[in-house]
Amino acid sequence: MIEKEWVQPAYDLNEEQENKEIVRRYRSLLRVLKPKLKTGDKQLVRTAFEMAVEAHKTMRRKSGEPYIFHPLSVAMICVEEIGLGVRSTICALLHDTVEDTDVTLDDIEREFGDEIRTLVDGVTKLDKVKFGEMAQAETVRKMVVAMSKDIRVLVIKLADRLHNARTWGFVPEEK
Predict the structure, then answer these.
(1) CB 97 within 8 A of CB 124
(2) b/e map 36-71, b = 16+ CB within 10 Å
(3) pTM of the model
(4) Is 100 one of the catalytic residues?
(5) Is it the case that residue 57 has pLDDT exceeding 70?
(6) What is the C-alpha to C-alpha distance for residues 173 and 91, in angstroms, rounded to an integer?
(7) Which among 81, 99, 106, 138 is annotated as catalytic?
């Protein structure tokens, strides 16, 4: 069940309030993740958070919210609702950086290693899945390939889609 504090019907925060809300959501994520943290994990999560904040700093969602609210929400879904761990949390925080910002897979590998690079790459590739009757076989093929490499790729992508669905109220009906 999603926490009420994460749902906002309308967006009307100033910059100082936004920064406080970003930090509050990050700390909430850390509290939920705490039982799964091992030595060094908290710093890795913080590095991923800071990289995502920096990469998305000028981006906004259709709701007007800072874009970073989305990766934080996807990470929270992964940990709190699905039960995934630290590596998946890092990937959830970074899942849109390669596609939407100047961050590269090489940057992610340099900072977090090959496992996180592979997860982020897989989630990014799943984002390119086409919809419609003609694309159905290709969609299934991409999902099977992603699952065969690491099921977390598909689970993180589903968390991403779930958060997007929860915020459809801000998207025009025709979309």
Answers:
(1) no
(2) ebeeebeebbeebbebbbebbeeeebebebbbbbbb
(3) 0.82
(4) yes
(5) yes
(6) 30
(7) 99
Q: Hey, is 13 helix, strand or coil?
A: coil
Which amino acid is present at 83? Answer: G
- What is 86-107 written as a DSSP string? HHHHHHHHHTTHHHHSS--HHH
Q: Mind listing the pLDDT tens digit for each residue in 72-123? A: 999 999 999 999 999 999 999 999 999 889 999 999 999 999 999 999 998 8
For 89, half-sphere exposure in the C-beta direction (CA atoms, 13 angstrom radius) is 27
How many alpha carbons lie under 13 Å from residue 20 in its C-beta half-sphere?
Answer: 5
Active site annotation includes 5: no
Identified catalytic residue from 100, 107, 115, 127 = 100
- Residue 164 CA to residue 67 CA, distance in Å, equals 12
Please calculate the CA angle 22-76-62 and round it to the nearest 5 degrees: 60
Using alpha carbons only, give the angle 34, 126, 92 rounded to the nearest 5 degrees. 15
Gyration radius (Cα) of the chain, Å: 16
CA distance 68 to 94: 10
Contact criterion met (CB below 8 Å) for 53 and 135: no
The residues pairing with 66 across neighbouring beta strands, listed in sequence order, are 60
**Who has greater pLDDT, 57 or 164?**
57
Top-confidence range, 17-21, 50-54, 58-62, 164-168:
50-54
